[in-house]
Structure formats: C-alpha cells, structure tokens
Specification:
single chain; alpha+beta; six-stranded mixed beta sheet; 12 helices; 27% strand; binds flavin-adenine dinucleotide
C-alpha cells in the first residue's frame, strides 16, 4: 500500500532534528533505517504528518572503543555491527547483529532505531540488557545517559520525550573471563524471533561463576530479566545441575502470549532450551574457547 501523504525534512545534525521535531509537533517522526517505520506507514498503521530524516547527518554511524566502553552511534546499521572487529570482541553483539532478519534489513536498520522502537520481539534490547548498556539521549534540554533497564518502559514505549533522540549506545566492555551469548529461535530469516535468550557470565575460574545475567526476549511486553535464573548461577560452581536449574528458572520467568508463532507453553519450552544453549556458549567463551553461535530456525 502507499503511505499517507507526509512532509519530508532532512536534518543536518541531531540538534537540528530535535528542534524540527519540537516545531513540527507530536505527529512528526524521525526516519532512521525505515525498517519498522516505513512498513507501518505503508500499512497505514502509522500516519506521521512529517518525517525528519537522520540519514544525512555526519558522524552518527560509528563503533569506537573508549575508556573501557564500546560506543555505537545511533545510526550504525546492524550490518556494520555484524562486520565490526571491535564489536566482535564482545561476541554477544555479533550474535545479535548477524541474526537480525535478512541482509536487506541489516543493511538499512539501525541500532538506534531498534532501541527507540522498543518492539517486544526486537533482538537488541535483551542483549543490551544482558550487557548493562546505557542509552545516550539528546534533546532540547541537553543530553542524558539512561541505563537500558530504565530506557524501555513498556511495549513500544521508552523514556524518550517528544523531541528527544537516541544519540549513542554505550556498552561496558566485559572483563576477563566474562562472556555472553545470544540465541533466538525463528520461523525463517526475515521475521522476528519467536523467543530468544541472552546470557552474560563472569567467571572466577573454569567453573565458579561470580556473576550472571539472563534476559529473555519475546516472552513479555518488555524483555524479561530472569533474576532467579541468574541467581541459580551467581556464586555457584557451574555443574550440569546448576545449568538445568537456571534453564528451569528462565522458563518460569517467561510470560509469553500465544500468537501465530506458537502457544504460550511452546514458547516457555523454547526459552528453556535457548537459555541452556546460550549459557553453554557463554561459559565456553568465558573459558577462552572459540564458540560460534547462530540463531535456530524451524526445521533445522
Ligand atoms: C522484514 C523485517 C524483518 C525484521 N526482523 C527483525 C528481527 O528479526 N529482529 C529485530 O530486532 N528487528 C527486525 N526488524 C526491524 C529492524 O531491526 C529495524 O531496523 C528496527 O526495528 C528499526 O530500526 P530502523 O533504523 O529501521 O528505524 P526506523 O524504522 O526508521 O524507526 C523506528 C522508530 O524509531 C524512531 N527512531 C529511529 N531512530 C531514532 C533515534 N535515533 N532516536 C529516536 N527515535 C528514533 C522512529 O521515529 C520510529 O518511530 C525487521 C524488519 C523488517 C522489515
């Protein structure tokens, strides 16, 4: 379908984009990769009166290491993260970027657009929560840094004010013997996952876990931080029994809705399997092994 008519503006800086949004009013929206917004407009589920295009603003797409953090500009495409050697040093980022939809979507879609969209089925939020990332926001009243755990308020709802923008995602570099993994289960490549699990662990040695985070995607209105699953690992020797307890606790934390992707029970079972697999991959990586992870697809 053809979208409803709208005015088009091209911003030269994020500050100008924010000013334009303030002047144009709440019916205006910014355009990043357009991979969520344009389909919604074509279906006429979104009818912005004006689009402010961020695509021509210099220095908004970058991946930089600085002071123990990885800084990712809001307009960085999923594909650029997939191909980045700096991002690959935090393998869970590569797991996520490489598995989003197909290469067309990855070449256009941006990390800033994904976190701003706050789609409960999106891949980035569980991963960024597992890493304890921060979102740098910018608007008329200046800049502020918001932990991703506070940034997402509800399904498709963030703390962003009407003329506020995501400028950057800041990921703390995991320490030694720390690693994570992210696995999503999908019906096929160009669709959102049915369920997903992000696991990040910090190990004292080969077996003893100092800290853990387990975050589940697609099984709640926002990503589910599975605190009991993490507690089953934190301060424990990682035995097969501890791994099963963590996977069981993740399954108990999931609160999925039945839909065309599957029943609630089916999604809970998926969470159990995905958590176990992501945990095993994270543990292997924390021990220094090269563990490749890819999304799971129906029938594979
Ligand atoms: C066929 C298909 C399959 C997909 N599958 C997946 C998948 O498996 N996993 C997944 O995670 N995603 C998937 N996506 C979505 C994709 O990842 C998008 O890139 C992402 O959701 C939005 O990013 P975008 O840059 O395209 O944002 P846009 O579509 O341009 O914008 C999305 C929303 O965010 C706002 N926005 C954008 N940038 C900013 C900013 N810097 N500051 C404030 N607000 C901003 C816009 O105004 C809009 O409301 C899929 C998309 C398609 C079309």
């Amino acid at each position: 379908m053809i979208p409803h008519a709208f005015d088009y503006y091209r911003a030269g800086s994020l500050e100008e984009a924010s000013r334009m949004l303030a002047e144009l009013g709440e019916e205006a929206k910014v355009l990043a990769g357009g991979q969520s917004l344009i389909p919604l407009m074509k279906l006429r589920l979104a009818r912005p009166s004006a689009l402010v295009d961020l695509n021509h603003i210099p220095r908004t797409a970058y991946i930089e290491r600085q002071n123990g953090h990885l800084r990712i500009g809001a307009m960085t495409r999923h594909a650029a993260i997939e191909e980045s050697a700096d991002a690959a040093r935090i393998p869970i980022l590569h797991d996520c970027a490489a598995g989003i939809a197909d290469c067309q979507v990855r070449n256009m879609g941006t990390i800033g657009g994904s976190v701003a969209e706050a789609d409960p089925h999106g891949d980035w939020a569980p991963v960024l929560l597992a890493l304890g990332a921060e979102v740098e926001c910018t608007g008329a009243s200046g800049s502020r840094s918001v932990p991703i755990s506070q940034f997402i308020k509800d399904a498709f709802t963030t703390v962003l004010g009407p003329s506020e923008l995501v400028r950057e995602i800041r990921v703390p570099a995991p320490g030694q013997r720390s690693a994570g993994a992210y696995i999503a289960f999908k019906r096929c490549a160009p669709v959102y996952p049915t369920a997903s699990a992000a696991v990040q662990v910090a190990m004292q040695d080969e077996d003893f876990c100092l800290d853990a985070r387990v975050v589940l995607g697609c099984v709640g209105l926002t990503p589910v931080v599975a605190t009991e699953a993490a507690a089953a690992l934190r301060g424990q020797a990682i035995t097969p029994h501890a791994i099963e307890r963590a996977a069981d606790a993740a399954m108990a934390a999931a609160d999925p809705q039945p839909d065309l992707r599957g029943s609630a029970d089916y999604k809970r079972l998926l969470i159990r399997v995905l958590t176990r697999r992501a945990l095993l991959a994270a543990l292997g990586r924390a021990r220094g092994e090269h563990v490749e992870v890819s999304h799971e697809y129906v029938g594979r």
